[in-house]
Structure to design on (577 residues):
């Protein structure tokens, strides 16, 4: 491999990001991923295992890792932490009963050393449902204001209608790009 | 794998010189042999014979022994080889992966190329098939991630991506109207449930309250704060019914019921069942998910898009599910196809938007049972003879 090829490879790699999608079960992680990719969302089943999708957006190559959120799968989440640039935390805004669970799982993640450098985007999903909490309410319930270790942002969205998905991901890309692609 | 194989061969090579060495030793130590033969019962007669004679027959014996050893060695190698083959999964090698992947890809592309023409139903059917096949292929790739190289993974992902976009293209071309119909349906479900914004502010306090109180106590309090949710809580030994007017695409919550018979005529948006003991719960088509948590000794029946079952024991579910059912931390869950019916059910099916022809009731994912080929012991199918056929009171 010549020096030029190495440089080229490095350059290519720079435009690549690894994004990890996590959240409790039934939060809508797979639906967000599929909707973002323009696929049919009406036939999604609870994720047993994980999905990976690579897509191009604004000249970036995004590697999405969507890992199942069932209780029994959460212990496997840490297998996916390595070299993650951005963490998408998906919240089911209509599921008030488990908001506490949701907050606990999130704070556990934020203590993870391997996620220390990652940008955190919180999707307050399912805004199309009647009983959905507002993003302000979720911000309070998850005590997001206390997060000092990560850059974070909360965006209300609906995976079913696709509302605000782009806004959220764009914010995340900007934040990650500003952090790691400063050479450009 | 390769390292192991070469090690096995090495063992074989190592052994054969040792055999020839012993052979030489025996030839050289003729005088010593006599003594040793005395101790050997089988060759006791040989000992009295002449030396030359003995050497000949010994030569044959040694030959025989060498052959026997050689055979043993070959057998050993064979056995190890077999063992290795049974241990390693043939599916876990890159060559197999790329071969299968390419074959499947070609098959799907072939199918896709026929997805045009006059017969709309046929085209729709074919598109459906390509979609499911693509999903299967994606799953195959996902399952293979562990042993694939980055390059292989990227290549297969790119191929899938291309395929996915051509399917979308073909679908748009073949049935642009269907997409519109789907959107109309989701909008249809939205209007009756529109909640005033002030209410969600109030609900915010509810979230805080449920944070502090234990989950059991939070359930009834929560239903008070969200008036758009209907249901029953803390009942015992009653017959409970709800009509289509009461349900109207809302969320239904049933909690802390024991020995009750529940009939929900109508199409809820979601159905939550929590802390249910010895009940019979029948419900009309649920347009999204049904959540079952802490339920025991009960019989349930409903059509839905997804079923998520947790902490449930000894419960029968008569199910129509268009996506998939999952269980987690459950035992003794048994399933059969949905068989209840009531006069206005067809209309409720139309409201829910569920596909009546697609029922995956027997495809259950157990999240506590990740073994690949062996079925989960936590759920079973109710034998046809034991299924309930009449639901009348």
């Amino acid at each position: 491999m010549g020096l030029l090829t190495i440089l080229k490879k490095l350059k290519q790699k720079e435009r690549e990001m690894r994004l990890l999608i996590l959240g409790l079960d039934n939060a809508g992680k797979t639906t967000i991923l599929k909707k973002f990719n323009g696929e049919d969302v009406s036939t999604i089943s609870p994720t047993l295992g994980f999905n990976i999708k690579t897509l191009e957006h604004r000249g970036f190559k995004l590697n999405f890792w969507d890992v199942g959120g069932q209780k029994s799968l959460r212990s496997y989440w840490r297998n996916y932490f390595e070299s993650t640039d951005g963490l998408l935390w998906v919240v089911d805004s209509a599921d008030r009963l488990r908001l506490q669970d949701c907050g606990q799982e999130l704070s556990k993640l934020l203590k993870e050393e391997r996620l220390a450098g990652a940008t955190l985007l919180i999707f307050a999903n399912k805004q199309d449902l009647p009983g959905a909490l507002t993003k302000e309410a979720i911000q309070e319930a998850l005590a997001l204001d206390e997060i000092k270790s990560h850059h974070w942002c909360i965006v209300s969205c609906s995976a079913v209608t696709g509302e605000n998905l782009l806004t959220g991901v764009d914010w995340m890309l900007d934040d990650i790009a500003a952090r790691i692609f400063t050479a450009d | 794998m390769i390292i192991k194989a070469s090690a096995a061969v090495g063992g074989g090579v190592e052994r054969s010189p040792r055999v020839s060495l012993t052979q030489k030793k025996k030839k050289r130590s003729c005088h010593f042999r006599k003594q040793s033969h005395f101790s050997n019962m089988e060759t006791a007669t040989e000992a009295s014979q002449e030396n030359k004679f003995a050497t000949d027959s010994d030569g044959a014996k040694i030959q025989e022994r060498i052959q026997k050893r050689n055979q043993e060695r070959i057998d050993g190698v064979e056995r190890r080889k077999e063992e290795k083959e049974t241990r390693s999964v043939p599916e876990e090698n890159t060559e197999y992966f790329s071969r299968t992947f390419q074959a499947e890809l070609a098959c799907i592309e072939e199918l896709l190329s026929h997805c045009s023409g006059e017969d709309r139903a046929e085209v729709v059917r074919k598109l459906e098939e390509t979609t499911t096949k693509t999903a299967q292929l994606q799953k195959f790739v996902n399952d293979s991630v562990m042993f694939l190289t980055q390059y292989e993974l990227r290549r297969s992902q790119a191929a899938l991506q291309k395929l996915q976009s051509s399917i979308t293209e073909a679908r748009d071309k073949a049935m642009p109207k269907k997409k519109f119909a789907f959107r109309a349906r989701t909008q249809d479900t939205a209007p009756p449930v529109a909640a005033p914004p002030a209410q969600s502010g109030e609900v915010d306090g509810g979230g805080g309250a449920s944070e502090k109180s234990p989950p059991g106590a939070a359930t009834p309090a929560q239903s008070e704060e969200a008036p758009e949710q209907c249901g029953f809580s803390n009942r015992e030994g009653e017959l409970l019914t709800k009509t289509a007017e009461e349900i109207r695409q809302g969320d239904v919550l049933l909690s802390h019921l024991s020995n009750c018979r529940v009939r929900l005529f109508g199409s809820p948006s979601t159905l939550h069942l929590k802390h249910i003991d010895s009940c019979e719960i029948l419900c009309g088509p649920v347009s999204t998910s049904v959540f079952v948590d802490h339920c025991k000794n009960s019989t349930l029946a409903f059509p839905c898009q997804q079923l998520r079952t947790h902490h449930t024991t000894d419960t029968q579910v008569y199910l129509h599910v268009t996506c998939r059912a999952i269980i987690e931390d459950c035992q003794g869950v048994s399933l059969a196809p949905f068989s209840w019916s009531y006069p206005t059910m067809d209309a409720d099916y139309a409201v829910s938007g569920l596909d009546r022809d697609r029922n995956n009731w027997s495809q259950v994912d157990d999240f506590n049972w990740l073994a690949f080929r062996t079925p989960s012991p936590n759920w079973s199918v109710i034998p046809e003879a034991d299924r309930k056929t009449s639901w009348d009171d």
In short: The first strand of chain A starts at residue 16 and ends at 23. Chain A has a mean pLDDT of 86. Helices of chain A lie at 3-14, 29-36, 99-110, 135-141, 165-180. The beta strands of chain A are 16-23, 50-57, 60-67, 86-92, 119-125, 152-156.
